Amino acid sequence: MNICFLMGKIISEINFKFMIQGKNKSIAIFQIEVENKTIITVKGYDEIADYCYNQLQKDNYIIIMGILDYKGEIEITEIEQFTLK
User: Of 6, 28, 60, 71, which cross-links 49 as Cys (Cβ 3.0–4.6 Å)?
Assistant: First the structure.
């Protein structure tokens, strides 16, 4: 398990889906762009998915703590929105 911390800008629409089978009820998937212009796909489940869908939108800046999975995507464990001044 690889824990990572990322800060970036949301560059895609947040795709929210309900899951029929499995341990999770819902998922939110979107992409962020970090400072060096790398684009990373991130995903959150259940409560985090609800927060992402209801509170975030394209062009928001976020800080994420997550787990790097085998596909190179980040599964969000904690997330916080911030603004640049």
Answer: 28
Residue 64 class from Cβ within 10 Å (0-12 exposed, 13-18 middle, 19+ buried)?
buried
Q: Residues 70-84: pLDDT tens digits?
A: 898 999 999 999 987
Rounded to the nearest 5 degrees, what angle is found at the Cα of 50, between the Cα atoms of 45 and 55?
Answer: 130
pLDDT tens, residue by residue, 47-72: 999 999 999 999 999 999 999 988 98
In the 8-state DSSP scheme, what is residue 39? E
DSSP state, residue 12 = S
Q: How far apart are CA 73 and CA 66, in angstroms?
A: 9
Alpha-carbon distance 10 to 58, whole Å?
5
Which residues make Cβ contacts (< 8 Å) with residue 77, sequence separation at least 6?
3, 48, 65, 66, 67
